Inverse folding.
C-alpha cells in the first residue's frame, strides 16, 4: 500500500489517542460531579426529613403555632422537597452523561486499536524494519503529553489562586462564627450573613471554573450557543465589548469543536490580560474549508515574532499549547501585530 496511506493511518491512531485522553479527563470531571451531587443529596435528604418531621409536629399541634409559623413550615418543607427533586434529576443527568461518555470512549478505543493494527500491517507489508510509530508520530505523542502537562499545570495554578483560596477563606469565616456563637450572638449572626454571601460568591467562582474546564453546553447545545454564552460572560467579567460574527452551523467532530472553543477562550484571555483593548471582534466561519477563526482587537499590540519565540522556548504558555494542538489537527495559527497597532490572529482548522 502507498506510504501516504500508512502515514495517514498512523496519524489517525495518534489523534484518536489524544481524543481518548481528553474524553477520559471529561469522564473524571463528571465522576467528581456525581460524587459531589450524591453527597449533597444525602445532606438534602436529611434536611427534608427534618422538615417533614417538623411539619408533622405542627400539624399535630396546629393550635399551638401562629399562622406565620405554619406558613413558614409548609413553605420550608415544600422547598426542601423541590430542591431534593431537582438535585436527583441533576444526578440522573450526570449519570446518563457518564454512561454515554464511557460507551463512546470504549468505541473510540476499539477504533484506535483497529487503526493501529492496520498501520502495523501496512508497515510490515512495506518492509519496514520496526513496525510501529514513525519519528513524526513519536514527536506528535511527545507534543501531546507536553501540551497536556502544561495545561494541567496552568489549571492547578488557577485552582490554587481562585476556588481553593476562596474555600480557605470560607473555612476561616466559619471558625469565626463558631467562636462567636455563644459569646456574641449578634455579631455571630452578622458574620453568618457575610459567610452566606461569601459562599454564594465562591459557588459562582467554582461554576465559572468548571465552565472554563469543560462547558457542558458544548455537549448539550453545541458549539455556537457555547461560544455566545462564553463571550457574554467574558464581556461581563472584563468589561470589554465583544463583537461576534458567526457564519454556518454544521456538526463537527467533538475534538474540532473543543479546539475551536479553546482557541477563542485562550485568545480572548490574552486580549483581556495584555492588549489594553477597548473592543475585540471574533469571526468564525464554519462554512469555510478549512474552518476559519479570526480574533482581532484594537489594543496596544506586541512584537509577535519575539514574544512567540520566547513563549516557544518556555513551552508552557497557553498560546504554545494552543499552537501545538492546532498543528496536530493539520491547522495553522497566524499572528499579525505590531506595537500600538492592535492584534489580528487567524486560525485555520481542517474540518476532517
Amino acid at each position: 500500500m502507498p506510504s501516504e496511506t500508512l502515514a495517514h493511518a498512523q496519524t489517525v491512531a495518534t489523534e484518536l489517542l489524544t481524543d481518548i485522553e481528553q474524553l477520559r479527563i471529561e469522564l473524571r470531571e463528571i465522576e467528581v460531579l456525581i460524587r459531589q451531587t450524591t453527597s449533597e443529596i444525602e445532606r438534602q435528604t436529611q434536611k427534608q426529613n427534618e422538615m417533614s418531621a417538623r411539619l408533622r409536629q405542627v400539624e399535630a399541634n396546629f393550635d399551638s403555632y401562629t399562622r406565620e409559623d405554619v406558613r413558614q413550615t409548609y413553605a420550608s418543607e415544600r422547598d426542601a422537597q423541590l430542591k431534593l427533586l431537582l438535585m436527583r434529576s441533576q444526578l440522573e443527568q450526570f449519570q446518563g452523561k457518564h454512561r454515554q461518555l464511557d460507551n463512546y470512549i470504549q468505541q473510540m478505543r476499539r477504533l484506535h486499536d483497529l487503526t493501529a493494527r492496520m498501520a502495523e500491517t501496512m508497515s510490515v507489508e512495506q518492509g519496514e524494519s520496526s513496525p510501529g510509530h514513525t519519528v513524526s508520530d513519536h514527536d506528535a505523542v511527545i507534543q501531546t503529553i507536553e501540551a497536556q502537562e502544561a495545561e494541567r499545570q496552568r489549571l492547578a495554578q488557577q485552582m490554587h489562586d481562585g476556588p481553593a483560596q476562596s474555600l480557605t477563606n470560607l473555612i476561616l469565616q466559619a471558625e469565626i462564627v463558631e467562636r462567636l456563637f455563644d459569646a456574641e450572638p449578634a455579631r455571630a449572626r452578622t458574620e453568618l450573613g457575610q459567610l452566606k454571601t461569601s459562599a454564594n460568591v465562591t459557588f459562582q467562582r467554582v461554576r465559572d471554573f468548571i465552565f472554563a474546564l469543560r462547558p457542558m453546553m458544548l455537549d448539550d447545545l453545541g458549539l455556537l450557543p457555547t461560544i455566545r454564552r462564553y463571550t457574554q460572560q467574558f464581556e461581563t467579567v472584563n468589561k470589554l465589548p465583544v463583537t461576534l460574527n458567526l457564519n454556518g452551523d454544521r456538526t463537527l467532530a467533538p475534538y474540532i469543536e473543543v479546539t475551536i472553543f479553546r482557541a477563542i477562550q485562550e485568545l480572548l484571555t490574552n486580549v483581556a490580560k495584555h492588549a489594553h483593548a477597548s473592543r475585540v471582534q471574533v469571526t468564525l466561519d464554519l462554512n469555510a474549508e478549512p474552518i476559519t477563526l479570526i480574533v482581532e482587537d484594537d489594543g496596544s499590540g506586541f512584537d509577535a515574532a519575539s514574544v512567540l519565540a520566547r513563549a516557544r522556548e518556555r513551552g508552557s504558555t497557553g498560546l504554545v499549547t494552543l499552537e501545538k494542538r492546532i498543528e496536530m489537527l493539520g491547522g495553522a495559527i497566524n499572528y499579525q501585530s505590531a506595537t500600538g497597532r492592535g492584534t489580528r490572529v487567524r486560525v485555520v482548522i481542517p474540518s476532517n
The chain is about 75% helix and 10% strand.
